[in-house]
Amino acid sequence: MVAENDTEYYYSLGEIEGKLENKEQTPYNFKYSSPQIKKQPNQNNTRKLLAKGKNSMVYDTDIEGYIAEKQLSGAVTYQDVKDIVKRILEEKELDCKAEDYGCEKSKEEAENYIKELRTELKEVDNYDEYLAFIAGTGMNEEVYWQTKVESYRRQLMRNEYMEKMYHEFLSGKENLISEEGSGMAGQEKAQIKEDSQRKIDFMRDLRENITKESEIEIIGNLGLYIRSN
Predict the structure, then answer these.
(1) Which residues are bridge partners to 218 per DSSP?
(2) β-strand partners of 51
(3) What is the mean pLDDT of residues 143-151?
(4) Rounded Cα distance, 55 and 100, in Å
(5) Mean pLDDT score of the chain, rounded to an integer?
(6) pLDDT band at residue 187 under the 50/70/90 scheme
(7) Distance CA 118, CA 130 (A)
(8) 142 pLDDT above the threshold of 50
């Protein structure tokens, strides 16, 4: 994530949710950048186009936060840069699909989601590290989370679209296993477990198909964003 101040701080909010789901098994490691990681000043105040798809484009300003976050854990390779560009374009294309499908989310819905997330954060064992992370951003909690409202609004929109696509996929299938009751035979339980994996596979395939349909074209020189240790 990119802060709108002189010192960048980055933490994947998707990782926060993932860790919350497994907070008893997974250490909660907040991280923020050292003062050495700064925004690179744009001398001519213009964005550089790096890649484009059917409905969206990726600029240098879209990737700088992800590059700096990746650099915190080591070198940034050409493949890393390419993967970052692909992921951003994929999300932008998903945004377009979701909007076309009518999966609009309001600012209030995003704020409510963040409110629930913040409540869950208080339950993690190393809550003090979360507070240290917020302190490292140079903002108080309220200001920090306000900067995340729009990104969460779009994330909720994408999630709803993908869920609807999955349910449409299921509606076309026959002999679905009912989850009612607890006295299921072993074969039925195995099938439900298989269906859970099927959802994961479906979501992955949906993203990959959208990426293919996007006809991604790399335009900029991604080699400029390679970083050494």
Answers:
(1) 51
(2) 58, 218
(3) 89
(4) 11
(5) 76
(6) low
(7) 10
(8) yes
Structure tokens at 173: 């299938």
**Contacts of residue 80, Cβ cutoff 8 Å, sequence gap at least 6:** 70
Q: Give the CA distances from residue 21 to residues 27, 159, 178, 207, in Å, rounded to whole numbers and listed in that order.
A: 12, 17, 25, 22
Give backbone dihedrals phi and psi of 81, rounded to 5 degrees, phi first: -65, -45
Can you tell me the distance from the alpha carbon of 212 to that of 209, in angstroms, rounded to the nearest whole number?
5
**Cα atoms in the 13 Å half-sphere on the side-chain side of 125:** 9
How wide is the angle at C-alpha 41 spanned by C-alphas 62 and 68, nearest 5°? 50
β-bridge partners, 76: 227
CB atoms within 10 A of CB 209: 10
Cα separations in angstroms, 62 against 66, 92, 93:
8, 11, 14
- Quick one: 179 exposed, middle or buried, by C-beta within 10 A (0-12, 13-18, 19+)? exposed
Residue given tokens 């002189």 in the structure block = 6
CB 85 within 8 A of CB 93: no
CA atoms lying within 13 Å on the CB side of residue 108? 0
Q: Which residues contact 3 (CB under 8 A, 6 or more apart)?
A: 9, 137, 138, 139, 147
CA distance 100 to 89: 17
Residue 85 C-alpha from the chain's centroid: 13
The CA-based diameter of the chain, rounded to the nearest angstrom, is: 68
Mean pLDDT to the nearest integer, 50-71: 88
